[in-house]
Design a protein that fits this description.
The complex is a heterodimer of chains A (748) and B (155). By secondary structure, chain A is an alpha+beta fold. Chain A is built from 19 helices and 29 strands. Chain A folds into 3 domains: 179 residues, Aldehyde Oxidoreductase, domain 3 (Alpha-Beta Complex), CATH 3.90.1170.50; 302 residues, 2-Layer Sandwich (Aldehyde Oxidoreductase, domain 4), CATH 3.30.365.10; 143 residues, 2-Layer Sandwich (Aldehyde Oxidoreductase, domain 4). Chain B has 5 helices and 5 strands, in the order E-E-H-E-E-E-H-H-H-H. In chain B, helix 2 crosses helix 5. The longest helix of chain B is centred in the C-terminal third of the chain and has 18 residues. Chain B is globular, with a radius of gyration of 15 Å. The chains are: A alpha+beta (748), B alpha+beta (155). Chains A and B meet through helix 1 and helix 17 of A and helix 2, helix 3, helix 4 and helix 5 of B.
Chain lengths: 748, 155
C-alpha cells in the first residue's frame, strides 16, 4: 500500500477532457475583432549582403496595413552597440542563413499579405556560404559575423580579444591525469562519430497573436515554454519596459525545447503596434522546418582506455557542434555536466566547440547536445565490450558511477539508482530470453542527465467552498499541471477535482523561468509544497482560534484540523475556508511558495532495443524496446510512461530516418513526407520499467523525467543494428540506403 | 452553398478554392480541427466526410457541398463522450493534444468499418496521423480498449 492517496496514482490528465473535445485553445485558435494577417519575407540566400531593401511598392497595395524591416525595430535602433549576432528576427544589412526573415507584412487577408511580400524588392549580393563546421574553424574561412570572438570557458586570459572567429564557444574541462590514465590501459580505442541535424517535430506550427492598446501596451498570445522569457524577448525587440508587454499563455502543441525561441511573437507585436490592429501570424510547416531552432549536427571524437578486465582508465572527447548562423547557446555548458558522468572514469578531458555556419541556427532540443554525445560514447563502449568479449550490460554495471563519485565538473554524485536500473534491465532481459533468428540483434545503451532547476513561485488561493486554485506562471508541456495538482491534493487532503490549476499571464502569475530540461515538476513541486505548508499554517491558526487552542497544538490530517490528543475538537478545511469569506471573516487565505537554489537530482536511463534488419532493403525494424529509468518517485505513472515512450520514439526517428538535407545551405526536404518522422507503424509498444530510488533532494524524492529517456536511444538502436548485421555505423541516420550499403560492403 | 457540420446545415459564401479546413476553422469556428502541415502529411486536420476520414486541408470546400461533416466538436452526444474520447482520457493517450482530434476521428472511421481490429491493423489505420509526444503506445491501447468496450456493449 502506498503511503500516499493521490500522489503515485495513474490519474487522467486534468487537461485531457478539453483536448479530446477540441475545446483546448492553442495560439492559432485565438480570434480577435478586425484581425490582420501577418506574413514574413525570407531570404533565399544562406549568405548575402542586402544592397537594397525597398518596401514602397508593397506599401501601396490595397489592404496592406503595416510593413516592418530591421530599420523599424525600436530595439535595434536604441541599442547601437548590438552586434550582428543579436539580430536573428529581422536581418540588418546581411543575411546569414537561408529563410532568415528580412521583412514582415500585416494585411487584411493572408492573400494580400503574401502578394505584398512579392512586391518587396530586395537586392542581394551573394557571398560564399560556409557550410562545413570543420572548414568554418579554419583561420582562412570567411567570417559569418565580423564582430564575433570565441567565448572560451574557462578563459585563461580574460578580456583578451584575439581575432574574430566562427567558433562561438569553446569549453574545456579536465579531471585527473589523462596521459597517465591511457598508460594504465591495456587497450585504447579512438573513433569519430557523426550525427545529423534534426527537428523537434512538434505537430503544432508556430503561431502568435498580438494586440496593442492606446497606452502603448502590447498583449501577446504565444505558445512559449517560458512566458516571462517570451516577454523579455518581445520587450527587448520593441524597446519597451517589461511591464508594458503582457504575454498570455495558450496550450502548446508540442515543444521539446523548440518553443523557447520565439520566431514570430516579436514581429507580430511590432506589426500590431505599427498597424494599430490585432495581428495573427502562423508559420507553414515549411517555415517551421526552415526557421526554428533544430538540434545541431555533431562530429564527436572519443578516445577511451580500458584494462583487459574492462575497467575504464581514461577517456577524452572532442565535440564539435554545428551551431548554425547565430550563437544561440553553448553546448559545452551541457556536455560539461552530462558527458562521461555515468561511469567511474578517473582521468578524462572534454573539449566542446560550437561552430557557426550559414545554416539555420541550432539550439535546444530535448537534452541539448547530449543524445549526440551519448551516441558516440555508448557506441564506443559497445565496441569495447565486443573486443573484450564481455556482455555490454555487464561492462556498464562494472564501471557504473555511484554516490560519492566526483563528476567531470567537480560535483559529487548524489544518490542515484543507476545500478538498480541496470540490474532491473538485466533481470527483464533474462526473463525475456536471448534474441534469436537471422538479422536480429539487441543493443544496450545508457544515459545520464544532470538535470536543471528553475526559479519558481506558486500561489494557492483557498476558495470559500474548500476548493483551491493553484496559480502558476509556468506553461505545461509534460503533464506538469496534473502532477502538481496531485501534490496539492495530497498535501491539503483534497480530492483532485477540488484543485484547479491556473496558468496565469505575466501580469497575474508568479515568476517562473521556463519549462525546460526536465526541471518543471522537479522544481515546481518544492515551490508548491512550500505554498501548501503556508496554506496549512494560515488555516491552522484560524482553526486554533475557533477551537480555542494554541496554533502549535493543531495538527492537520485527512482534511481536518484538530487539537493534538483530542479528536473531539476538530474543524474541517472546508469550514475554515467558508469562514474566511464571511463578513468580518479573516480574509482570504493565499498561500505562497517560492524556490531558488535547489540542486538538481541526476537521473539515469538504461535502454535495450531489439531490431530486425531486412538484408534485401536495409530497412531496420524496431521489434521491441525497453527502458529502465530511476524517476525517484512517479507522481503519475501514466505521465511518466508517456514521457518515456514519446522520447524513445523521437530518438528512433533520429536514429533511423530524420535528417535535414541541404543544398547550398537551403533545406530541401521541407514537408513532413520528405522529413519523415516515426508513425505508429515504425515503433512497437515501449516497455517502461519504472525504478524508484528516491533522490536525496527536493520533495517526494523526485527526479527529472523527460530528457533522460531521449539520451541513450541513438546508441541503443545503432548497437542493435551492429548486433544484427555485424556492421558498425558511426554516422546517423541509419536509413535503408545507408544500412544496405554497409551490408554490401561487409559481404564484399 | 450549404454544408452540414455536426448535424446542422450552414450556408456559407466561401470562394470555391477555400479548403474545408479554412472554412471550418475561420468561418464556422470549429477550431478543434488543427492544421499541422497543410499538405496532408500529418493528419491533424482529419474530419469525417460522410463517415470517411479525410484531411480537411486537402478538401476544397466545393467538394464538401452537400456532404455531412463531423468534427471533433460533434463527436460527443448530449454531453456524453464518445467511447474513444473516454478511452483516450483514461489511458493517458492525450499529451499536448494537438494531434488528438485528428487521431480520434481517424480511429472512429476505422472502428466503424473494423470493430475488432488487431494491434497492427490499428497502427496501419493511424499511420497517417503523426503524434510526437506519446510514442503511440497509449493511443493504440486506447483504441483497442474503446473497441473492446464497444464489443462488450453489443453483447
Amino acid at each position: 500500500m502506498s503511503k500516499y492517496s493521490v500522489v503515485g496514482r495513474r490519474l487522467p490528465r486534468v487537461d485531457a477532457l478539453s483536448k479530446v473535445t477540441g475545446e483546448a485553445v492553442f495560439s492559432g485558435d485565438i480570434a480577435l475583432p478586425h484581425l490582420l494577417h501577418g506574413k514574413v519575407l525570407r531570404s533565399p540566400y544562406s549568405h548575402a549582403v542586402i544592397r537594397r531593401l525597398d518596401v514602397r511598392k508593397a506599401q501601396g497595395l490595397d489592404g496592406v496595413m503595416a510593413i516592418i524591416t530591421a530599420s523599424d525595430v525600436p530595439g535595434y535602433k536604441k541599442r547601437s552597440e548590438l552586434t550582428f549576432s543579436e539580430l536573428p528576427h529581422l536581418a540588418k544589412d546581411k543575411v546569414v542563413y537561408a529563410e532568415q526573415p528580412v521583412a514582415a507584412v500585416a494585411a487584411l487577408s493572408k492573400e494580400i499579405a503574401e502578394k505584398a511580400l512579392d512586391l518587396i524588392r530586395v537586392d542581394y549580393e551573394a557571398l560564399p556560404p560556409v557550410l562545413d563546421p570543420l572548414e568554418a574553424m579554419e583561420p582562412t574561412s570567411p567570417l559569418i559575423h565580423q564582430d564575433l570572438y570565441t567565448n572560451i570557458i574557462p578563459n585563461p586570459e580574460p578580456g583578451k580579444k584575439d581575432r574574430p572567429s566562427n567558433i562561438a564557444y569553446h569549453v574545456k574541462i579536465n579531471k585527473g591525469d589523462l596521459e597517465a590514465g591511457f598508460k594504465e590501459a591495456d587497450m585504447i580505442l579512438e573513433n569519430t562519430y557523426r550525427t545529423q541535424k534534426v527537428h523537434h517535430g512538434f505537430i503544432e506550427p508556430f503561431a502568435a497573436v498580438a494586440a496593442a492598446d492606446a497606452n502603448g501596451k502590447v498583449t501577446v498570445w504565444t505558445q512559449s515554454q517560458g512566458l516571462f522569457i517570451a516577454r523579455q524577448m518581445i520587450a527587448q525587440f520593441l524597446d519597451l519596459p517589461r511591464n508594458r508587454v503582457k504575454v498570455i499563455p495558450v496550450e502548446i502543441g508540442g515543444a521539446f525545447g523548440g518553443k523557447t525561441y520565439q520566431p514570430l511573437a516579436p514581429l507580430c507585436a511590432l506589426l500590431a503596434m505599427k498597424s494599430g490592429r490585432p495581428v495573427r501570424m502562423e508559420m507553414t510547416r515549411d517555415e517551421v522546418l526552415k526557421d526554428s531552432r533544430p538540434a545541431p549536427e555533431s562530429i564527436i571524437t572519443v578516445k577511451m582506455g580500458v584494462t583487459d578486465q574492462g575497467t575504464i582508465t581514461a577517456a577524452s572527447a572532442e565535440l564539435i557542434y554545428d551551431a548554425g548562423a547565430f550563437p544561440e547557446m553553448s553546448h559545452g555548458m551541457f556536455t560539461s555536466s552530462n558527458v562521461f558522468c555515468q561511469y567511474k572514469i578517473p582521468n578524462l578531458s572534454l573539449d566542446t566547440k560550437d561552430v557557426l555556419t550559414n545554416k539555420v541556427p541550432s539550439a535546444y532540443y530535448r537534452a541539448p547536445g547530449i543524445p549526440q554525445a551519448h551516441f558516440a560514447i555508448e557506441s564506443h563502449l559497445d565496441i569495447i565490450a565486443r573486443r573484450l568479449k564481455m556482455d555490454p550490460l555487464e561492462l556498464r554495471i562494472q564501471n557504473a558511477a555511484v554516490k560519492g563519485d566526483t563528476l567531470p565538473n567537480g560535483e559529487i554524485l548524489p544518490r542515484v539508482g543507476f545500478k538498480e536500473s541496470l540490474e532491473k534491465m538485466a533481470e527483464y532481459l533474462k526473463q525475456k530470453g536471448n534474441l534469436t533468428g537471422r538479422n536480429r540483434g539487441r543493443g544496450i545503451a545508457c544515459g545520464f542527465w544532470h538535470g536543471a532547476v528553475g526559479s519558481f513561485g506558486a500561489y494557492i488561493q483557498v476558495n470559500n467552498n474548500g476548493s483551491v486554485n493553484l496559480i502558476l506562471g509556468i506553461t505545461d508541456i509534460s503533464g506538469s499541471r496534473t502532477s502538481i495538482a496531485q501534490i496539492v491534493a495530497e498535501e491539503l487532503g483534497l480530492p483532485l477535482n477540488k484543485v484547479t490549476v491556473v496558468i496565469g499571464d505575466t501580469e497575474t502569475a508568479p515568476w517562473a523561468t521556463m519549462s525546460v530540461g526536465s526541471l518543471t515538476v522537479y522544481s515546481l513541486s518544492t515551490a508548491v509544497y512550500r505554498a501548501c505548508q503556508d496554506v496549512k499554517a494560515q488555516m491552522g491558526s484560524l482553526a486554533a482560534k475557533k477551537l480555542g487552542a494554541d496554533p502549535s497544538e493543531i495538527e492537520f490530517s485527512k482534511g481536518l484540523f484538530q487539537v493534538k490528543g483530542n479528536t473531539e475538537k476538530s474543524i474541517s478545511f472546508t469550514e475554515i475556508a467558508r469562514s474566511t469569506a464571511m463578513t468580518f471573516g479573516k480574509g482570504p487565505v493565499l498561500g505562497r511558495g517560492a524556490l531558488d537554489g535547489l540542486p538538481p537530482a541526476p537521473t539515469l536511463s538504461v535502454h535495450a532495443a531489439d531490431v530486425e534488419v531486412d538484408d534485401e532493403t536495409g530497412k531496420v525494424r524496431i521489434k521491441a524496446y525497453a527502458v529502465a529509468q530511476d524517476v525517484g518517485l512517479a507522481i503519475n505513472p501514466l505521465s511518466v510512461e508517456g514521457q518515456i515512450q514519446g522520447a524513445v520514439t523521437q530518438g528512433i526517428g533520429w536514429a533511423l530516418m530524420e535528417n535535414y538535407i541541404f543544398e547550398k545551405g537551403v533545406m530541401q526536404n521541407t514537408t513532413l513526407l520528405d522529413y519523415r518522422m516515426p508513425t505508429a507503424t515504425d515503433v512497437p509498444m515501449i516497455e517502461v520499467l519504472i525504478v524508484e530510488v528516491g533522490s536525496s533532494r527536493g520533495v517526494y524524492g523526485l527526479r527529472h523525467v523527460g530528457e533522460p529517456p531521449m539520451i541513450p536511444v541513438l546508441a541503443a538502436v545503432a548497437n542493435a543494428v551492429h548486433s544484427a548485421t555485424g556492421v558498425r555505423f558511426k554516422e546517423l541516420p541509419l536509413t535503408p540506403e545507408v544500412v544496405l550499403k554497409g551490408i554490401k560492403q561487409r559481404d564484399k | 452553398m450549404k454544408i452540414n457540420v455536426n448535424g446542422r446545415d450552414y450556408k456559407i459564401a466561401a470562394k470555391p478554392w477555400r479548403t474545408l479546413l479554412e472554412v471550418l476553422r475561420y468561418e464556422l469556428g470549429f477550431t478543434g480541427t488543427k492544421e499541422g502541415c497543410g499538405t496532408g502529411s500529418c493528419g491533424s486536420c482529419t474530419v469525417l466526410m460522410d463517415g470517411k476520414a479525410v484531411n480537411a486541408c486537402l478538401v476544397f470546400i466545393a467538394e464538401a457541398k452537400g456532404k455531412a461533416i463531423t468534427t471533433i466538436e460533434g463527436l460527443s452526444r448530449e454531453g456524453k463522450l464518445h467511447p474513444l474520447q473516454q478511452a483516450f482520457i483514461d489511458e493517458g493517450a492525450v499529451q499536448c493534444g494537438f494531434c488528438t482530434p485528428g487521431v480520434i476521428l481517424t480511429a472512429k472511421a476505422f472502428l466503424d468499418s473494423n470493430p475488432q481490429p488487431s494491434e497492427s491493423q490499428i497502427r496501419e489505420a493511424i499511420a497517417g496521423n503523426l503524434c510526437r509526444c506519446t510514442g503511440y503506445d497509449k493511443i493504440v491501447r486506447a483504441i483497442m480498449n474503446a473497441a473492446q468496450a464497444a464489443d462488450k456493449g453489443r453483447v
